[in-house]
Automatic annotation (TrEMBL):
Entry superkingdom: Bacteria
Protein's organism: Nocardiopsis aegyptia
Name of the featured protein: Peptidoglycan/xylan/chitin deacetylase (PgdA/CDA1 family)
Disordered, as annotated region: 194-247
One Gene Ontology term of the molecular function aspect: metal ion binding
Stretches with biased composition (Acidic residues): 237-247
SUPFAM superfamilies: Glycoside hydrolase/deacetylase
GO cellular component: membrane
Length: 539
């Protein structure tokens, strides 16, 4: 049986013949009220906010996200999602103007079992401002990041939640059934159609009560999709195909894809223990001048909709963020925060330093929120310890480039090991950790070097030949012409002309939507000691 209590009802406006007046309200009509739970990052104890900002001639981008520990799955997913939005924004810049993209994160729930985060983005171009938001949910069980659909018991619960939202819109905002937007309208139309097709007492089918139910076969219903009344759809069935198991992470993500555009993509818990879905006021006539419309699902209705993860998330949201236990010992530790398998990433690498131009280079990288990898000489580490200390403190990666640039292929295994170990110790004394990877001088390799190097060996696929040309324009042009997603680009920060080329390289690649990462981030940490790597281009 279809739950007729969730059917659309004739509003007071309709009774007065005002059905065609969008969003009409009686003078004393109070709009539905909901208070969503959410805490800004800077107010959550124990959570460090990571941020970045790039101001260029053609655009401005900035973002803020939670750093939950080295390579924490939720941190990586949030950063990667924001990076994907940034790339799409930069790839579609208008010819004129300086549009802005601002992204932020709000914590919706946090406990040892679950963390919920709301990602928001605001795009400003001229007088136009566009808002977008979605939520992600981390489950400690399985250490997985899940979409909003995982909060619900099954797809029947998703359908019922949309019908509850339809009731809020029709009863609370006096929105006619035919004006119900998007998926809410589609689900409501299917429910009305199914209800109309059910036999009433005496065996006859009930008369249609909405435009969706009266559509001729093959004609669009209120949702805009063809409906066939000969094959009514039970609202407990999914939009297409067999019901998905929302307890399975892959199927939960598949369901999120299938339900794209749902107001529940931006779901939170209310202070009363129910759910809150946000909608754009442009989709809700009569919403007034509010920036967003909050649609409540009451606690007693939400109780039957939630999955196990949903109950954990609700409890965590209601508990607040004042007494959160540490998520792990490395809560603020740095780690891989971008999944370059999904992004346009490039690793800029600099050999033979540190030197007199390195700090100026660091200033340039900072302007583009760029992380780079520096292959340093142990002898120069002793000469420029403060430069190396700053390089590491600003998040750049340090690699081993030998003690004083000798050709390692001319040494014995013991000689190679001694040379690399000496450099490792010099670096560790300054920054507190050893280099992560090796780049042999001249890229010279043989079996002896590979057997003696207890770290991954990184070469390159884009050689700017900056040491040879000493021509700033030629260096930047070569880097821009030959860099592709996954490239490792070789420069030398000991040359003035090389450092002078970097602003054009950063601007050009940023404009194309690239993200500047360390070597280990580029390879997603999948590096083995003794193995040789030139690039991380997709195969």
């Amino acid at each position: 049986m279809v739950d007729t209590s969730l059917r659309r009802k004739i509003t007071a406006c309709a009774a007065m013949g005002l059905l065609l007046v969008p969003g009409c309200h009686a003078a004393d009509h109070a709009l539905p009220f909901a208070e969503a739970i959410g805490t800004p990052l800077d107010e959550v104890p124990g959570v460090v906010a990571g941020s970045g900002s790039v101001t260029a001639e053609h655009s401005v981008v900035d973002y803020q996200y939670p750093r939950l520990g080295g390579a924490h799955p939720l941190t990586t997913e949030i950063r990667t999602t924001m990076a994907e939005r940034q790339t799409a924004f930069l790839e579609n810049l208008p010819e004129r103007g300086t549009p802005e993209l601002s992204q932020d994160t709000t914590i919706l729930a946090m406990s040892e079992e679950v963390v919920g985060a709301r990602l928001t983005s605001v795009t400003r171009s001229g007088l136009r401002e566009t808002h977008d938001a979605s939520t992600l949910w981390y489950s400690a069980e399985g250490e997985r990041v899940l979409p909003w659909t995982a909060l619900f018991r099954d797809e029947a619960a998703l359908e019922r939640a949309h019908l509850l939202l339809a009731d809020v819109l029709t009863e609370g905002y006096n929105l006619p059934a035919e004006q119900l937007p998007g998926l809410v309208g589609e689900v409501a139309a299917r429910a009305d159609e199914a209800a109309a097709a059910e036999p009433a007492e005496g065996g006859a089918a009930r008369a249609p009560e909405t435009p969706a139910a009266t559509a001729e076969p093959g004609e669009p219903a209120a949702s805009g999709e063809p409906q066939d009344p000969a094959e009514p759809v039970d609202p407990a069935e999914p939009l297409e195909g067999e019901p998905l198991d929302l307890g399975d992470p892959e199927q939960a993500w598949a369901a999120a894809e299938e339900w794209t555009g749902s107001p529940l993509e931006d779901v939170a818990f209310s202070t009363s223990g129910g759910l809150v879905a946000r909608m754009d006021p442009d989709d809700v006539p009569g919403a007034g001048g509010d920036r967003e419309v909050l649609l409540p699902v009451e606690a007693e209705d939400a109780e039957d909709l939630l999955s196990g993860l949903g109950y954990q998330a609700r409890d965590a949201a209601l508990a607040g963020t004042d007494d959160i236990p540490p998520l792990d010992e490395g809560l603020t530790a740095q780690g891989s925060e971008l999944n370059c398998q999904r992004l346009k990433c490039v690793a800029l690498t600099f050999d033979d330093g540190p030197g007199e131009h390195t700090e100026e280079l660091l200033d340039m990288l900072q302007e583009y929120d760029a992380t780079a990898t520096f292959y340093v000489l142990g002898s120069l580490v002793e000469e420029f310890p403060q430069v190396l200390e700053r390089t590491a403190a600003e998040g750049h990666e340090i690699g081993n480039h030998s003690w004083k640039h000798d050709d390692l292929t001319g040494l014995s295994e013991g000689g190679v090991a001694k040379d690399l170990e000496r450099t490792n110790r010099a670096v560790e004394e300054v920054i507190g950790s050893e280099p992560l990877t090796l780049r042999p001088p001249y890229g010279a390799l043989n079996g002896t070097v590979r057997r003696s190097a207890d770290m991954p060996i990184i070469l390159w696929d884009v050689d700017t030949l900056d040491w040879q040309s000493r021509n700033t324009a030629a260096i930047s042009d070569h880097a821009l012409a030959h860099s592709v997603p996954g490239s490792v680009v070789l420069f030398h920060d000991i040359h003035r002309t090389s450092v002078d080329a970097i602003p054009a390289v950063l601007e050009g690649l940023h404009r194309q939507g690239y993200h500047f990462v360390s070597v280990t981030e580029l390879f997603h940490g999948d590096l083995e000691p003794g193995d040789v790597y030139t690039d991380a281009q997709p195969t």
